[in-house]
Design goal:
The complex is a heterodimer of chains A (337) and B (394). Chain A is mostly helical. Chain A has 14 helices and 2 strands, in the order H-H-H-H-E-H-E-H-H-H-H-H-H-H-H-H. The chains are: A mainly alpha (337), B alpha/beta (394). Chain B: InterPro entries: BCAA_transport, Leu-bd, Peripla_BP_I.
């Protein structure tokens, strides 16, 4: 019995807890991508760098708070700074919408033009972020680091294996859950949310029914920017903030959105967790886990690792290709790209 | 035509005159590129030795040494080769102090140095691969090979009673070479490496890497990475998840920032870093005070020693001929003979002039072994109460 518990704790510590936190971060990012795709009808390559920009604003405000002595006790100060970061991200998104995307929207350019324009925006945001905060690692987490420490868990339960849950992981899962509920309530129940869904479903029909397209576009950017900032801040708190890693996050985020079914918010969430868990489960070495579960005194010869951790990023690629080949609409029926 | 010939003759005459006065020695280091912050002090170390030799008045019947700098760029093999080519063919140097980074050093030695029969003494190239290049005996280094450090680290870990370890290394030539050398040495001592896995630098998240490393069931994690890069992330994640409590570190992981970032959890961690005890290093640091920005900076001692060896070998041979220098390097570097430290080059030159023998010790306890590379002395340290504490020298 104790062996089974040990095995479960071991797996939770190295696979389930990190997977849940990473999955929630990816899901929030993928929600932003999927919303833009559904309403504005293009794949926004600048989303990763929008996350970086929002997080940068959060970090700057956090530092200001820390220097004047405002803190949130055991939870990170960054949560207090989050609204300011969201405002900054909304500001820059609307600025780029007015200056770049609006031009193509009035010209009714094909989606691929938007995509390429968003690549340009991506590089500009990339440059702005590095210019302001620099290309290096930034540390902005404070408050208590752990909800449960591995050593304390061992002492408490008497098991061989420890379970560590970081405050940032707990906060990530709770915040992501609340944000998702709020988003679904907004899309299903509120007037603007319904207008957005109608606009996404059939643009001409929506316009005929008197829906104001400018308002729909405005709200889409506001929500996407808010989601990007929250996802970016949670990721930064849990791991670390470095502009380049946010740029690299673009691939798993897109993979999550497409696997789940792009344009479908529920799919984005499912896709986020699928990508996160496949990255962690495929590269985990199950030797110790099997030793606990197997008969007494038996040990597998190798590490029982499917893929070396070097291939972590390749996992999202492989899943992406498989999904596009076998089920191009994704798990939940999204739009076929 | 006649004028051109005359001009050429005049020029060659002038060049000939200059050569009789001063022996030129090339200093090829990465004055631009990734280690540009270290190279000015390294060059200052080498030039200090040359100045000391020139001012002694003992060198080759009153001759002097004239340093000629060139840029190795540290990373661009083509640019480094061109710069070395210039030193050898146009500046006509007698020997070269350099190059610095392992990649460009290999390129220069293979393409220019060895084919032209010019002695190269690198102060800082540590790749194990350089031990095996076809150098015809013309390539030396005052820095030890990482293979040697792998050996030392394996001994330290074995002495502490660990028989089964996990290894993670930064995914480049340094990390891979170091990890292979360590594994070979450790297994020869009877230890077993449960897993040896690379990590990429500059990632935000190392939980998958740490998960795989911990699953192998080892008691100790050997981290052969960089202190401000992936190595730090690996250690932090390992401590967070309770995967490992104790770490053995390679030289790239030595830095105060590690203790600042990790804190008390690091206590008990140990490792090795190149370093020698004794008066030599302290004496040189004193001599370089005011000349170099960081008088005891990395590889300044090795640079001083490399330049000193060239001068002493020329003196022992009695000529600044390229092949003559090569034949005497090992003689002056190793016993038997009178030990010579930094600041005592004049004494060494005098002994050699009178036909005596010397054993150049220098700032870094120079002892060239095997293929003409430093045996290397390493400092074994342990983290105690939030500070690095020297245990012993190996």
């Amino acid at each position: 019995m104790e062996d089974i518990l040990n095995a479960i704790v071991l797996l939770s510590n190295f696979v389930i807890v990190p997977g849940l936190a990473y999955g929630a971060q990816l899901a929030l990012g993928a929600l932003g991508v999927t919303l833009i795709y559904a309403v504005l009808r293009f794949s926004n390559f600048a989303h990763g760098d929008l996350m970086a920009f929002g997080t940068m604003a959060v970090i700057l405000v956090t530092w200001t708070f820390q220097s004047v002595g405002i803190s949130a006790g055991p939870v990170p100060t960054a949560l207090l700074a989050l609204p300011f970061g969201i405002l900054a991200a909304i500001g820059i998104s609307l600025l780029f919408d007015r200056s770049v995307y609006k031009f193509y929207r009035t010209k009714k350019s094909p989606p691929v033009v938007f995509v390429i324009a968003s690549v340009g925006v991506m590089f500009m945001l990339n440059g702005i972020v590095r210019f302001i905060i620099g290309p290096g690692d930034q540390n902005f987490s404070d408050g208590g680091r752990f909800l449960i420490k591995a050593r304390e868990f061992k002492e408490m339960t008497g098991l061989n294996e420890g379970l560590a849950i970081k405050t940032s992981q707990g906060i990530t899962i709770i915040v992501a859950f609340l944000v998702m509920i709020a988003l679904f309530w907004f899309l299903q129940k509120s007037r603007t949310g319904k207008a957005m869904r109608a606009y996404s479903d059939n643009e001409d029909l929506a316009l005929l029914s008197g829906i104001n397209p400018d308002r729909v576009v405005l709200y889409t950017w506001i929500i996407a920017a808010a989601l990007a900032t929250i996802a970016g801040t949670l990721y930064g708190l849990d791991k670390s903030f470095k502009p380049f890693t946010y740029f690299q996050l673009l691939l798993p985020i897109f993979a999550a959105a497409i696997v789940g079914g792009i344009g479908n918010p529920l799919g984005a969430i499912a896709g986020g967790f699928v990508i996160a868990f496949s990255e962690v489960t495929v590269t985990y070495a199950y030797k110790k886990f099997l030793i606990y579960l197997g008969p007494e005194g038996w040990a597998p010869d190798g590490l029982v690792q499917l893929l070396s951790t070097d291939y972590k990023f390749a996992v999202s690629f492989v899943i992406l290709v498989l999904v596009l080949l076998i089920r191009p609409t994704g798990i939940f029926k999204g739009k076929v790209i | 035509m006649k004028k051109v010939l005359m001009a050429t003759a005049a020029l060659s005459l002038m060049a000939g005159v200059a050569q009789a006065d001063a022996v030129k020695v090339g200093i090829i280091l990465g004055f631009t590129g990734p280690i540009e912050s270290l190279t000015p002090d390294m060059a200052a170390g080498a030039e200090l030795a040359m100045k000391e030799v020139s001012e002694s008045g003992m060198f080759l019947d009153g001759s002097t040494i004239e340093p000629v700098r060139a840029d190795s760029t540290c990373v661009d093999a083509a640019a480094a080769t061109a710069a070395a080519e210039r030193l050898i063919t146009s500046d006509n140097v007698a020997a070269i102090m350099g190059a610095d980074c392992s990649g460009v050093t290999t390129a220069i030695a293979n393409n220019v140095g060895v084919p032209n029969g010019v002695v190269m003494i690198s102060p800082s190239a540590t790749s194990p691969a350089l031990s095996d290049i076809e150098d015809n005996g013309f390539f030396f280094r005052t820095a030890p090979s990482d293979a040697r450090q792998g050996d030392v680290l394996a001994n330290v870990i074995k002495d502490k009673g660990y028989d089964n370890v996990a290894v993670t290394y930064t995914n480049n030539d340094y990390g891979k070479g170091f990890a292979d050398a360590f594994q070979a040495a450790y297994e020869a001592l009877g230890g077993s490496v449960a897993i040896s896995a690379a990590h990429e630098d500059g990632k935000a998240d190392y939980s998958a890497e740490v998960g795989a490393l911990s699953a192998a069931g080892a008691d100790l994690l050997v981290v052969l990475g960089y202190v401000d890069q992936g190595g730090l992330g690996i250690i932090r994640t390992s401590l967070d998840t309770g995967a490992f409590d104790t770490f053995a570190l390679g030289d790239g992981m030595f830095g105060d920032s590690l203790i600042e970032n990790i804190g008390d959890d690091l206590n008990g961690t140990f490792g090795t870093v190149p370093g020698s005890e004794g008066e030599g290093a302290a004496k040189l640091a004193e001599m370089l005070d005011g000349i170099a920005d960081n008088a005891s900076g990395p590889y300044t001692g090795e640079s001083y020693d490399a330049a000193a060896l060239i001068a002493l070998a020329a003196q022992a041979a009695g000529s600044a001929d390229r092949a003559a220098i090569q034949s005497k390097i090992l003689d002056v570097a190793n016993a038997p003979g009178e030990p010579i430290g930094p600041g005592e080059l004049a004494k060494g030159l005098e002994i050699l002039k009178n036909g005596g023998e010397i054993d150049y010790v220098g700032a870094t306890n120079v002892e060239l072994i095997g293929a003409g590379e430093a045996a290397g002395s390493y400092r074994e340290y342990e983290v105690k109460d939030g500070a690095f504490e020297t245990v012993t020298f190996r």
